[in-house]
Amino acid sequence: MVVTGRSTLLAQWSQLPGTDSIAYSVVFADDHYLFAGTQIGDMFRSADNGSTWEVANSGLPDSSIFVTLYGEPGLLLLGTGKGAFRSTDNGLHWQLVADQITSHKTVHQFFRLGQYLLMIADSGVARSTDQGSSWDTVHIGLHFAQSKYAIASNGGQLFLATQSEGVYRSIDSGVTWRPVNAGMEHELIYSLCAGINFILAGATDRILLYRSVDSGNSWSNLDKEVRDISNGFYALATFGDSNVIGISAWGVVHSTNQGVAWSVINDGLSRGGLVGAEGMCITQKDVLIAAVRYGIWRRPLSELLTPPSGVEDATTGATMTRLGQSIPNPTSGEVIIPYSLAASGHVSITLYNSLLQQVATVVDAEEPSGPHTARLEASALPPGAYYYRLHAGSVNLTRQMIVVR
Length: 405
Prior knowledge:
four-stranded antiparallel sheet
């Protein structure tokens, strides 16, 4: 059923046990733990995917609003209303970092770009090369009076959302910044996300969403496309090549075409799906959101995933060049990938995860024309949706496979 651009999906969000009466603001998951932080300064950790929780508050300030939580193997970084905190033991202990930069300032986001970690705070932009232990300010060209909310990367360039002057861009890993606002009306830009070929800038006033397909050189106004489904974008995140999830006070919205068209996906969320401004995490298999007053919610990524844009049907291209569905699908072990080549030549089959990160090369060889099969051992892959892409001459074909446990 579709009513005024809103869609009702059969699948729904599910609330994690024990999180139904607390105001959460941040959530993060890795291969071992699930973390959830509240608006009043409590951090919880779960080792069983959210079934049970333990307190993980050691070293954190009392009654500090948690704003953003970032993680990678062996490292957690927490942004609060009272500065930045770091944990290297899976949240058991936290230590204040960058106090000279962020003392009693709000930290809005952490971001990884190659060897650098970047931190976005009201006091400016800081950068670390030692896993967040020490930080240096890097904000040449930025005004200290600006509030800075979010950061994203596209084509190796950094983009920064500011409160009063739109979006800034850095081409030197964050050292210097220049405004890139052509087509913008200098809105309060609160959120950013970037895919392979696009950038979205979410606002909370008047114009609600901008989109750029030329690395920020120009922006188009998508207000008419989103006015009926959002009152502003407090968080944006991409997955796959074309999928975007947005969060506003009205709930959760989803786009499958790089932010051009949207649908509401509040199904199952209590009280209209009202959610927190920063509370979203996308893992290999789930989308997690931290809802204001109403708990931590989960939805399988596979329910929302669409193939990458520009993907041809598996029989498109040269007359006999085909890519078959992996067998079995879903899988928890070895799979066979059938394919056929119209002409002899070099062929590659590459595997990508749901975030379009390359995880394996299945085939990379010169092969004769005709039918072929490739084998892939998937038992070591994390559960979730994957894409395998065949490249042969001018033909590029893609299919999806699902790994389960």
